[in-house]
Design a protein that fits this description.
Elements: H1 3-11, H2 24-42, H3 47-60, E1 64-65, E2 77-82, E3 86-91, E4 102-107, E5 112-123, E6 126-134, E7 147-154, E8 160-165, E9 175-176, H4 185-188, H5 192-195, E10 203-206, H6 218-231, E11 241-247, E12 252-254, E13 260-263, H7 266-280, E14 289-294, H8 311-322, H9 327-332, E15 335-338, E16 342-343, E17 365-368, E18 372-373, H10 384-396, E19 401-403, E20 413-414, H11 418-422, E21 427-432, E22 434-435, E23 443-446, H12 447-461
Parallel strand pairs: 1-2, 4-14, 4-15, 15-21, 16-22, 17-19
Antiparallel strand pairs: 2-3, 3-14, 5-6, 5-11, 6-10, 7-8, 7-11, 9-10, 12-13, 13-23, 17-21, 18-20
Bound molecules: manganese (II) ion (2 copies).
């Protein structure tokens, strides 16, 4: 071997080789893992649905509802639910909370189209609903695709109706219309943000009138009658409802080699699922392990179901109290993987990325030392010490990983929940899966990357 070659081997980073570094066995395990994930994704369009699905899996895996002021023993498995929109899974460790807890936190809300409180109207012989988009979307991507309706209506008498309509092929679905190319000469000259505004995201829901009378808005009335017949709701009930329109796409394999997965809501359910499975597979850890799946990340983590609420902190305080520990001391010794996705390099839009420091499909789980924007504003920047610890943990557990910044410096940026975790005096770093066309109605990830995320969370817990 030449001197340069020898030194290069010894001193320099290895070239990227993508999935070529995986054995056939690992690729098979990744494919098997992806099968469970795809089913989860198809049943978890909204945070409520994700909580219900994970709760069911948790119960099948021996988790029981957490009870305050109860003594727990090593190996005990509990779950706690916040307003049906966030869920915590804990496996009590041999040392309980004495050396802090190990946390994996992902979010289960995804960008979508919410209804306004007073949405129903009729215009031009059509019935439509006014919407207010949720999270960061490129609005044009959400037009002319099949949409399904998900959500809950609370009626005046306090009873609730859960709606899930448009996912099955034999059910009706909904759509946001767009202008035909022949008529959009003016629109084509506008910038993308002006060509399609938030107030243009109106959802088409009907066109038949109730009857041939002279009453006004008979098409909207007919829709309301259909809703009343099916769900027993009136127009007033929209005022106390959370109704969300999501892409009605089934999760599918992508590519001739079926190496990737296309689906709605990978951000951040492709981290939520593996972190939950890692908790299920953890039997008797040293420290108590917690997977927490939170809501409202896409809108800034505000609100009582978001990561800025004290819900998780109180849960950890309760676990600490049961061990006779002070909650704040437990937090101070705790370590967390903030499990969120990163933007995978896309050769079609190469100029948005800095090739040496962005993440790539099939290069393993992505660690983002910091996110934020500009001069590292609005982020938690993980310390060299904690990065070192996590590097060693990933190496020990044979987890393939890469680093990832979110685009070029000053080009873009974004945030995760890591900074809110760091504010609790917890060591934290972002770790997750690389995603192509993030926040689009159909996002893409690779199967081995998803599996490496699972192995990373399992490694942290064990
Ligand atoms: Mn995310
Ligand atoms: Mn996001």
């Amino acid at each position: 071997m030449s001197n340069a070659k020898e030194l290069r081997e010894k001193l320099m980073m290895k070239d990227r080789k993508g999935a070529a570094t995986y054995s056939p066995e690992i690729l098979k395990e990744a494919d098997d893992f992806a099968a469970g994930y795809k089913t989860f994704l198809d049943h978890s369009r909204t945070e409520r649905e994700a909580v219900a699905y994970i709760k069911k899996l948790a119960e099948e895996n021996g988790f029981v509802p957490f009870e305050q002021d109860k003594q727990y023993n090593p190996g005990d498995r509990v779950y706690i639910i916040n307003r049906e929109k966030a869920i915590g899974l804990a496996v009590i460790g041999k040392n309980g909370t004495s050396d802090g807890v190990r946390l994996a936190i992902a979010h289960i809300d995804s960008p979508r189209i919410d209804l306004k409180p007073n949405p129903l109207y009729q215009d031009g012989g059509l019935a439509l609903l006014k919407s207010h988009y949720y999270g960061g979307i490129k609005k044009y991507q959400w037009t002319t695709i099949p949409l399904a309706l998900h959500g809950r209506v609370v009626k005046l008498d306090g009873t609730t109706v859960d709606i899930r309509l448009g996912e099955n092929d034999d059910e009706e679905c909904f759509i946001i219309t767009d202008l035909l190319p022949h008529l959009d000469k003016e629109m084509a000259t506008k910038t993308m943000s002006k060509a399609f505004t938030g107030e243009d995201l109106n959802i088409l829901i009907g066109s038949y009138p109730l009857d041939d009378s002279d009453e006004k808005d008979l098409i909207a009335l007919n829709v309301m009658k259909l809703l009343n017949d099916r769900y027993g709701i009136t127009e007033d009930d929209f005022l106390s409802a959370e109704l969300n329109f999501c892409p009605a796409y089934k999760t599918r394999d992508i590519g001739f080699d079926r190496s990737m997965i296309g689906g709605y809501g990978h951000d951040d359910k492709c981290c939520a699922y593996p972190s939950a499975i890692a908790a299920f597979d953890t039997k008797l850890p040293e420290c108590t392990c917690i997977t927490y799946l939170t809501d409202k990340e896409e809108t800034g983590s505000d609100g009582n179901t978001g990561m800025q609420s004290d819900f998780l902190r109180y849960f950890i305080y309760d676990l600490a109290k049961a061990d006779g520990n002070e909650g704040y001391r437990v937090l101070s010794k705790s370590k967390c993987l903030s499990a969120d996705v990163n933007a995978a390099f896309d050769p079609t839009y190469a100029s948005a990325y800095e090739a040496k420091n962005c993440s790539y499909v099939n290069e393993g789980v992505v660690i983002s030392k910091y996110t934020g924007h500009g001069g590292k504003y609005d982020t938690s920047d993980a310390s060299a010490e904690f990065m070192g610890e996590i590097r060693a943990m990933l190496k020990k557990n044979d987890v393939k990983w890469q680093v990832g910044e979110l685009g070029k410096v000053d080009v873009g940026g974004g945030g995760t929940i890591a900074k809110y975790v760091a504010n609790m005096n917890v060591d934290v770093v972002d770790l997750g899966v690389a995603v192509l066309n993030m926040h689009a109605p159909m996002e893409v990830i690779s199967k081995p990357d998803l599996y490496m995320a699972y192995k990373a969370f399992y490694g942290l817990f064990n």
